[in-house]
Amino acid sequence: MGDTRSMLRGLTVVLRRPHAAPPAAVRCVSSGTVDITVPLNFWAGKRRTSHEKGHKENVYEPATGRVLCHLEPCGAVDINQAVNAAKSAFGHWSKMSGMERMKIMIEAAHIIESRREEIAEMEVVNNGKSITEARLDVDSGRLCIEYYAGLASTLAGQHVQLPGGSFAYTRREPLGVCVGIGAWNYPFQIASWKSAPALACGNSMVFKPSPVTPVTAVLLAEIYAQAGAPDGLFNVVQGSQETGSLLCHHPDVAKVSFTGSVPTGKKIMEMASRGVKPVTLELGGKSPLLIFQDSDLENAVRGALMANFLSQGQVCSNGTRVFVQRDILSEFVEEVVKRTQSIEIGDPLLETTRMGALVSKPHLEKVLSFVEQAKKEGASVLCGGEPFVPSDPKLKGGYYMTPCVLGDCTDEMTCVKEEIFGPVMSVLSFETEEEVLHRANNTTLGLAAGVFTRDVRRAHRVVEHLKAGSCFINNYNITPVEVPFGGFKMSGIGRENGQVTIEHYSQLKTVFVEMGDVDSLF
After folding, report:
1. How far apart are CA 240 and CA 423, in angstroms?
2. Is-contact 85 232, C-beta < 8 A?
3. CA 490, CA 268: separation in Å to the nearest integer?
4. Hey, which residues does 473 pair with through a beta bridge?
5. CA–CA separation, 57 and 60 (whole Å)
6. What mean pLDDT comes out for the span 225-230?
C-alpha cells in the first residue's frame, strides 16, 4: 500500500491508493496525485472562504477514521452572496436557448467522463463506499446531465385554438434560484441529479451537500464553470442545519429540493411553506421485497443482496424487509447467508473490495445498536452484525462492520419497523399473497418495493397493490436516469429523474390572445 500526498491550502491530505490500482484519468497525474483543494465553498465562479470566523468542522475519512480536512460553515453573509450570484446568473442563463444550454451541459458531462477516476476516488475517500460503486455513481451523475441536456431544447408549451380566431398558448418558464440539499450516501450523484433538471429548465442553483461528505460537490461546481456556465449558475455552500435554514428562508429562493431523512424533510417543508415555495422531497424508506416460491432462486438471492448491501446498506430505497414464502425460506436463507459471509470487506480503494466503511463512527454505532436491539427482541443473527477490523494497520480506525442477516423476524420488531440505514437484512416468512401485501404496506413509508416471481400476472397484480413510488419486478435498486424516482406517503413529494421532473423545475404561464373586439358586460 503506497501513500499519495496532496497539498491543500494550509493542509496536507494523504490519499491512500493501492499499488495494484493506479489512476486512469486524474488531474495532476504525472506524480499520481489528486488535487484536493480547500475551501470547499464555491460561488460566483470560484472557491470562497466563509465569512464565519467561528467553529470549523472536521471532515473524516471513513476508511481510516482520520481527519481529512476542515469544513467552513456558511453564515448569512455567505448565503446572501451565493444566492445573489445565482440570481445574477439566472438572468443570463434563462434567456439562453435550450440548444445553448444543452451544449454547456454536454461539455460538463464530457469533463466528468474525463475525470471519472479522480471524482470516484474523492467519493471513496470522503464517503467510504467501494471504488467500484463510486465509479458507477459518477457515471449516473454524468448520464443524468446528458439526459437533461437532451431535454433542454425540447421544452415547449401548447397552442389552443379558441372561437373567433382567438387563441391561447402556454409557456414553460424556469422558476429562478433553486436550492438543492444533498445527503451523504451519494454526494456527487445527488448533486448531479438535482442540478441537471434545474439547469436544463433555465434555473440556477445553490447546492448544500451534507457536512459529512462535502468534498465532491465543489468538483461539480468547477466542472460546470469549466464547461462555460455563467459565473454563479451552480454554487456550493457548506454547513449544517443553520445553513440549510438560511437557504430555505431566503426570499430570493424559488424552490427547495431535499434528499435525506423524514424528520428533516418535514422541517424543510415547513420552512419552505412560509414562502409558499415548492419542494421536492426524497426521504427515507423501509421498503419490502417479496420473494414468492416460484421465483428463480438465484436471481432472488442476488436481488436481496443488491437490495440490502449496496453502499454498506446506506441506501434509502433498500428492500430491508425481505418477505420469503415459507416453502422456500430455508433454502433462500441458507444461500443468502453463504453469499453475505463471502462479501469482501476492507479498503474501499481496492478493486476487490465489495463493502467499504460506514460513513461515520456515530452512524456505525447506531447501526450496531439496531442489531443488539433485534437480538433483545427475539431475532436471530444468522451472520454478521459485528464491528470489523481490517488487517491493514492503516485501516484500524475505520468504521467497518460485517454485513448482517437477521432471521426469526416479526413485523413488530424495531429492526423491521425502523429505517436502519446500514448493512442489515431482516428476513420474514409469509404464506399467501393477500397476507404479504397487507404486511408490506403496513408502514408510513413508501419509497420502494420489489417482487420476485415467474408468474407475470402475479407480478403486475402485486405491484398494482404495493403502496410505493418505485417498484421492481425480478430486480432491485436499478435507477436509470430516464425513469422517475421517488416515493409515496411519508417517503417524499415529487420525483427525481425522467421527463416528469421538468415539471418540478418549471412553471406554466398561460397567455390569452384576443383577435377580435372585447365583449364587455359594461
Report:
1. 26
2. yes
3. 14
4. 451
5. 10
6. 98
Q: Is the pLDDT of residue 20 over 60?
A: no
User: Amino acid letter at 278?
Assistant: P
pLDDT number for residue 54: 75
CA-based torsion, 269, 271, 273, 277: positive or negative: negative
Full DSSP string of 104-119 = HHHHHHHHHHHTHHHH
Q: How many angstroms separate the CA atoms of 279 and 494, rounded?
A: 8
Phi-psi region of 311 (alpha: psi -120 to 50; beta: other; left: phi over 0): left
Measured at the CA of 62, the angle between CA 59 and CA 68, to 5 degrees, comes to 35
The per-residue pLDDT for range 245-271, each reduced to its tens digit, is: 999 999 999 999 999 999 999 999 999
Amino acid identity for residue 446 in this structure: G
Instruction: Cell numbers for 64, please give them.
Output: 481510516
DSSP 8-state symbol, 505:
G
Cβ contacts of 146 within 8 Å, gap of 6 or more: 105, 106, 109
- Domains in the chain: boundaries: 41-283+496-507, 288-490
Selecting among 146, 282, 335, 419, the annotated active-site residue is 282
> Which CATH number is associated with domain 41-283+496-507?
3.40.605.10
Q: Give the DSSP H or E segment for 51.
A: none
CA 448 to chain centre: 14
Are β-strands 279-282 and 253-259 bridged in parallel, bridged antiparallel, or unpaired?
Answer: parallel
DSSP SS3 for 493: strand
- For the stretch 355-406, pLDDT in tens is 999 999 999 999 999 999 999 999 999 999 999 999 999 999 999 999 999 9
Q: How far apart are CA 172 and CA 170, in angstroms?
A: 7
282 a catalytic residue:
yes
Residues 446/467, Cβ–Cβ less than 8 Å: yes
The full 3-state SS of 251-318, as one line of letters, equals CCEEEEEEECCHHHHHHHHHHHHCCCCCEEEECCCCCEEEECCCCCHHHHHHHHHHHHHHHHHCCCCC
Q: In angstroms, rounded to a whole number, what is the distance separating the alpha carbons of residues 403 and 388?
A: 10
The reported pTM is: 0.93
CATH code at 288-490: 3.40.309.10
Q: Which neighbouring-strand residues pair with 169?
A: 159, 511
